[in-house]
Write a structure and sequence with these properties.
With 469 residues, this protein is an all-alpha fold. It has 19 helices and no strands. It binds tryptophan (TRP).
Length: 469
């Protein structure tokens, strides 16, 4: 393999925007509200916040450290330190494919809604829910949008790190933030909004089960782009003078605040309109247009801007997923960027089509008891990411030299990381145990037992063949 200068981020702001761009996405605005809605609201949110701010942040520091230390993306990073661990990186690449099996479908919905805002979606508020149902279950329209969305991903990632990914994030992330705050203000000022705030912030722990913890942990990892080497890959493009723990803190805080603001944007309005919090995956696509529906032509414009911002937030996340696969093919297989992007993108076209069709035409087709979309979603969110995060913690705690970690996290002793010992103990003992307990509790109580066994089986098989990978 020829030795080329590794690509790197153009600036500190660019990196933060890219990492935050990866983290902030459909996970915050589409997924977080409906997970909170269907898991009882506030109690779920509190558990989620604790997981994000203790486990998530620590794992992110770990991913940045390993990525920058080795200057390699997930698979190469593990492999270069210990060959028995190559599988943990491979699991990450597999997770990237799985998440990209459903994410572009929702990205396509978001892009479609930009145009639907103008073409009469808002003119009949009572029909907004039915319109959504009819749209996602049809065979052609959502597939076309999904493909358009994927093509944009492919174009951005083929342009490389600083040119494509970084530029897009810098402009559109701040726009999204501003718009969400606007919607949140509008939402709380609706009559009857108080019930939504109660639902969000008055904890009711009677709703909590083993499922709640696993759902909250999965959501924390998903939302922060952790547990599959994504932040490791981004860290590998990071300059040696950056303060890793600080960057992890900023990214985590940005990400959790966007999720919370999305909650405040959605739930007060939802209760004000007398809708059900547990209505699932259609939540944002139904509630947000309703908020804008009674605002006339101004509403149309706001709705369009919202879905533009949502599409962009999704894009800056999905490009990071595609980048994990591409970086692997470049680092480990010596491929050119463009060839890697087209190959990985081609596979994602196929899985995306199947996943989109599983909402309607193929809804009768089940893999281990669930449709194709759910298969990809549940496997990553409920198993692969959490176990991936746990593996990283064990790897860091037990297989990487403590001095190396300290050296990397303090930039060779030039910056302070006062919490190093606490972080290290968390990685070594607390996180592996905590994830194990949550995973076991959750997996026992889950309905899709076959799927869980399959997921764990995949991980075990990868681990057994680690040296061959
Ligand atoms: N975090 C993104 C979101 O919330 C999705 C995402 C991007 C992701 N990269 C990831 C999830 C890596 C898990 C792992 O939408």
């Amino acid at each position: 393999m020829e030795k080329k200068q590794r690509e790197s981020w153009g600036s500190r702001f660019g990196f933060i925007m890219a990492a935050a761009g990866s983290a902030v996405g459909l996970g915050n605005i589409w997924r977080f509200p409906y997970m909170a809605g269907s898991n009882g609201g506030s109690a779920f949110i509190i558990i989620y916040l604790v997981f994000a701010l203790v486990i998530g942040i620590s794992v992110m520091v770990g991913e940045f450290a390993i990525g920058r230390r080795t200057q390699l993306a997930a698979v190469g990073a593990y492999k270069s330190i210990n060959k028995n661990w190559t599988f943990a990186g491979v699991l990450g690449v597999l997770s990237a494919f799985f998440i990209m099996g459903f994410y572009p479908v929702v990205g396509g919905w978001a892009s479609a809604y930009i145009f639907k805002s103008f073409t009469g979606l808002l003119s009949n508020p009572a029909a907004i829910g039915d319109v959504f149902g009819a749209f996602i279950t049809s065979s052609i329209e959502p597939v076309v949008w999904m493909l358009a969305y994927l093509v944009v991903n492919i174009i951005i990632v083929s342009k490389g790190i600083a040119g494509g990914i970084e530029k897009a994030g810098k402009i559109l992330m701040p726009t999204l933030f501003a718009l969400l705050i606007l919607i949140a203000i509008r939402s709380i000022s609706l009559p009857g909004a108080g019930a939504g705030l109660d639902f969000l912030f008055k904890p009711d722990f009677s709703q909590v089960t083993g499922q709640t913890f696993l759902a909250a942990l999965g959501q924390a990892f998903f939302s922060l782009s952790l547990g599959m080497g994504c932040m490791m890959t981004y860290g590998s493009y990071l300059n040696k003078s950056e303060n890793l723990p600080n960057n992890a803190l900023i990214v985590t805080l940005l990400d959790t605040s966007v999720a919370l603001i999305a909650g405040v944007a959605i739930f007060p309005a939802l209760f004000a309109f007398g809708m059900e919090p547990a209505q699932g995956a259609g939540l944002v696509f139904v509630v947000v247009p309703q908020i804008f529906a009674e605002m006339g032509s101004l509403g149309v414009v706001f709705s369009a801007i919202f879905f533009i911002a949502l599409t962009v937030a999704a894009l800056t996340s999905s490009v990071s997923l595609l980048e994990v696969v591409v970086a692997y093919l470049m680092d480990q297989r010596g491929w050119e960027r463009v060839k890697a992007v087209y190959t990985a993108g081609g596979i994602m076209v196929v899985t995306g089509i199947l996943s989109s069709l599983s909402m309607g035409t193929l809804s009768g087709f089940k893999l281990l008891g669930v449709g194709i979309f759910d298969f990809f979603d549940i496997l990553t969110d409920k198993i692969f990411l959490a176990i991936g995060g746990m593996l990283l913690a064990i790897f860091i705690g037990w297989f990487v030299k403590r001095e190396d970690l300290e050296d990397e996290l303090t930039n060779g002793g030039t910056v302070k990381f006062g919490l190093f010992n606490i972080w290290y103990a968390l990685m070594k003992f607390v996180i592996p145990l905590a994830v194990l307990v949550v995973a076991v509790m959750g997996i026992i109580s889950i309905e899709q037992t076959g799927l869980m066994i399959f997921g764990l089986g995949v991980i075990v098989v990868l681990a057994l063949f680690s040296k061959k990978l």
